[in-house]
Structure formats: C-alpha cells, structure tokens
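thought: user wants a sequence for this fold. calling inverse folding tool.
action: design(structure=
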C-alpha cells in the first residue's frame, strides 16, 4: 500500500514538473504559427510587390517610393518607365499609352539624386531587359553636381536584391501588416490609382500665385562674391553622367531615353541670379545637353524657358512644383517633338534663358498677388 502511494506521489511530481514545459511548448507552437501566418499573409498580399504582381481585388496603398518602387520595377507589366524627382509626381501614366502607345510605370523618388535614378534603372533593366522601350526621365540639373554615390534616402537593401533569405524584416514587419494590409482593407478609399501613383496632396486651389508667394523666400543676394564660372560644375556633371546615367544609355541602344529639364517657375531664376550662379547653371545645362545628344537613342527636352508656363505662378503650388496640366503638355511634347533640343538649337535655347533670367523684372512679381491669369491649358 505504501509502495503504491509513493508511486502515485512520484507520478504527480513528475506531471507537475512536465506542466511548465507543456505550457511553454504550446505557447511556442502558437507563437510560431502566428509568425508563419503573418509571413504567409504578407507573401500572399505582397504590398511591396517583392514576389508577384498585385492581386486584382486588393486595394493597394502605394505611397512608399523607396520600399515599393523595387517591387513595381520587378513585377509590373510595362514598356516604359517614368523616373525622376517630385517633378514627375503629377503625371498620369495613362497619357503615355494614349499619346505614345507606351504602357508606362511611374517610379518616382521625391528629391532624387542621379544615384537614385541609377538604382532603379538597374532593377528595371535586370528585370525586363530589352522589353523596356522607353525611359522618361526628369533631370533636376542641380542634383548632377552632387556626390555621385549620394541617395536621397537610405536604400532598403533587402528589397533591392533578389535574395529571399534576407526578407524577414519585410515579412515580419508590423507597419507592413497594419498600414499596408489591414488598413487598406478597413478603408478602401485610401487605395491608390495606378495611373497616378505618388500624386501630390495639393488640389487645384493650391495652385495660385498668392499661395506660391506666401511661402517663397528668396535666396540671399550675394554682393561681394564673384559670379561662378560657366564651367564650375562641369567635372561633377561628368562624373554623375559617367557613373549613373550613360552606362544605361550605352548598354541599351534599343531603349529610347526621353530626358527633360522641368519648368521651374521664374522664381527659380530669381534665386539663381541673386546667388550669382546664372553662368554656372547655364554652363551645367549646356554641358549636360552636349554630352547626352551624342547618343542616337537620347531625346532631350527643355522646358526651363517656357515663358507662358514659368512666368505664370498660377501654374504652381510652390516655386517649383507645377500643375498636372503642365505635365500633360510635357507628355504631348514627347509625342510631337516640340521643345526638343538638337545640336544645332540647344545653344540658342539656353541663350534665351540667360536673357530672360537677366532681364526679368522680378520685383514686379509682388505687385499683384491675386493675378487671375488662367493656368496653362485652361481658358
């Protein structure tokens, strides 16, 4: 009898010792199952498009250029790409199909540097090769004086490579799960329009002269300093072209490159002249244009001196960002060839910009804050 009691007591003690292990094993199993479920959900929906094209029914929110552009470049169907800074944000890619017969994917990076353009072109050509018929590129010429290795934002390496084994930060990311899967499902009105990705938040009422002048601060005027020489930026431009742009132009002669200088407002030229950089800026543009026009598959378009656009501040939300009507016009120029630069006319085009910038009556801009001149393309 005593022996049986001792055996029972031993079993009870053993069971009590085993109980925490069972609880831990159960918790661990549930935890691992939860992680696996989260990973499976992210792979299925794939809001950063790392593994497949978008699901037709899911209301994707596309607002993270650094993290979502790589997947878009790898897996979307397109014949052409639109790249550049926020100067490309107000474009509707349906226009490219309408006017150019080119299914185009927008891959903008706000504030992009040449290295950002290089990074996304590398992904595009690695994924699509000679399927890419056209590259539409906005060139913010001032960035071509920057360090050729500089990017606007840190690059998320695991999203830019093809190594699935380092994707854990994406697959087990709280923000991805909550902001890019659950939130769009809960409120479908936030779903992005594929033709207008990264569209600015400004609505039409923000595009007016009074709003522009309210937030514009003119550059400090330099008095004693000497003006920068015309070749001041030449070496930096050459380095950026050689490292970040020309390798793609040379490696893909089957691809047409449509490179354009965006139409910053006349206030941009006010800053340039106040800082005594006019000759250097014009020299930078001339040198860049000369280099690019050496290639048969490159078309360069200049909108920096388009007076009916840049001198009408009702076309702008600030001193640089222009209305979608202007974007439509630029797209039409790609189709018609209007404002295209050639070896025989680019010198004259930049001479006209120099004359405009030097002779413009800048103080008169402030005489009428509520100018009612219609925006470009409107009556």
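)
observation: tool returned 379 residues.
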């Amino acid at each position: 009898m005593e022996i049986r009691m001792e055996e029972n007591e031993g079993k009870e003690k053993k069971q009590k010792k085993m109980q925490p292990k069972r609880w831990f094993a159960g918790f661990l199993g549930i935890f691992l199952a939860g992680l696996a479920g989260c990973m499976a959900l992210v792979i299925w929906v794939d809001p950063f498009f790392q593994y497949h094209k978008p699901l037709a029914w899911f209301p994707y929110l596309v607002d993270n250029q650094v993290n979502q552009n790589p997947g878009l470049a790898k897996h979307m169907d397109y014949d052409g790409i639109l790249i550049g800074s926020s100067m490309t944000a107000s474009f509707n890619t349906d226009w490219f199909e309408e006017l150019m017969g080119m299914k185009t994917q927008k891959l903008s990076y706000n504030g992009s540097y040449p290295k950002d353009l290089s990074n996304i072109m590398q992904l595009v050509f690695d994924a699509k090769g000679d399927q890419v018929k056209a590259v539409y590129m906005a060139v913010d010429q001032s960035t071509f004086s920057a360090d050729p290795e500089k990017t606007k934002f840190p690059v998320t390496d695991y999203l830019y490579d093809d190594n699935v084994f380092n994707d854990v930060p994406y697959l087990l990311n709280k923000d991805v799960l909550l902001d890019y899967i659950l939130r769009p499902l809960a409120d479908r009105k936030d779903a992005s329009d594929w033709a207008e990705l990264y569209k600015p938040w400004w609505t039409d009422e923000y595009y007016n002269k009074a709003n522009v002048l309210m937030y514009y601060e003119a550059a400090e005027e330099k008095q004693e300093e000497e003006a920068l020489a015309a070749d001041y930026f030449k070496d930096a431009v050459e380095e950026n072209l050689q490292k970040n742009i020309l390798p793609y132009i040379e490696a893909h002669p089957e691809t047409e490159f449509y490179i354009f200088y965006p139409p910053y407002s006349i206030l941009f030229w006010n800053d340039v002249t106040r800082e005594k950089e006019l000759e250097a800026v014009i020299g930078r543009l001339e040198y860049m244009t000369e280099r690019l026009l050496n290639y048969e598959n490159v078309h360069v378009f200049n909108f920096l001196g388009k007076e009916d656009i840049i001198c009408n501040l009702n076309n702008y939300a600030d001193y640089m960002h222009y209305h979608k009507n202007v974007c439509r016009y630029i797209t039409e120029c790609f189709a018609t060839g209007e404002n295209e630069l050639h070896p025989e006319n680019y010198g004259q085009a930049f001479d006209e910009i120099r004359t405009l910038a030097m002779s413009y009556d800048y103080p008169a801009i402030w005489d009428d804050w509520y100018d009612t001149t219609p925006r470009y393309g409107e009556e």
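thought: summarizing for user.
answer: Here is the designed sequence. The chain has 14 helices and six strands.
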